[in-house]
Amino acid sequence: MILITGATGLVGAHIALQLIEKGNRVRAIYRTTSSIDKTRAYFDYYQKSALFTQIDWLEADILDIPLLEIAFENVDLVYHCAAFISYDPQDEEQIRKTNIEGTANIVNFCLSKNVNKLCYISSIAALGDKAPHENTISETTEWNPEKPHSDYAISKYGAEMEVWRGQQEGLDVVVVNPGLIFGPFIKTITDGSAGIYHKVAKGLSFYTMGSTGCVVVDDVANIAIMLMNSEIKNERFTLIENNYPFKTIFDAIASALKVKKPRIHADPSLMNIIWRIDWLLSKILNKKRQISKATAKASSSKNTFSNEKIKTRLDYTFTNVTNYIQTNVIQ
Fold this sequence. Notes:
By secondary structure, this protein is of the alpha/beta class. It is 43% helix and 15% strand. The protein has a single domain (2-185, 214-244, 303-321), classed as Rossmann fold (3-Layer(aba) Sandwich), CATH 3.40.50.720. The chain is globular.
């Protein structure tokens, strides 16, 4: 039996689909019945509705020890995809508790239940910080605790420390660090990177000159499964197809949706104004933040990530992100 946490999210749903297509038995945990609808929507999108019924769903939470005890019965492999994603500083406590403590729980159960191997879906946010002499960020780039990081980045880094602690205690693990992940555009799904599609569809006016590593969800799921089925263990891998300016991504989505492309350049000084306005509105209207100081800074950062390690180890060819957007972002 293969257990997937976070199977109601983009990556977890695609891992579940690929595993079932290969004839594997899959158990997936969920917190709310409504969240399962997102996974069903992905299966329906690929016209694989019949396969959706093969998932063994179990209500549980990675912070709920008694329910995890049940979830781990007869489990051989674990894909830990569950995470709390937010860039609102007010969510700091929940982010760290879910992502770090929750991962510690998964690791502890893997150890106590003698699970054969754990795959942890991390993030490029948990990779290190470039030193002055470095041009790219890779698996060996060192994390600098003196540098500013978002609460989300800190939580994913802390979660990785729990995974490596498990490895030191005898658990076989692989860690993947995907960049910004793109899946199909499904109108009923608005969280995660899908939110970018909806913002552009509604007429996103601003763009920044920042850039980041991007990857297609099918590649993340495929590589995770390949690593779990291989002899590779106790290593981490950066998963990106390429490094893209945000404007290139926005323009590709706008072109696919046949809407106006963002046309106003939001330089760092304008972004500083925007995040302050957003903070003020969140206080006045009592709503969640849409952009924080950290995300405003990140939107103008030009980070370059290397995917050479995974390309070399698996001889893998990634799907071009902009081409994928053109064929999967349709109304």
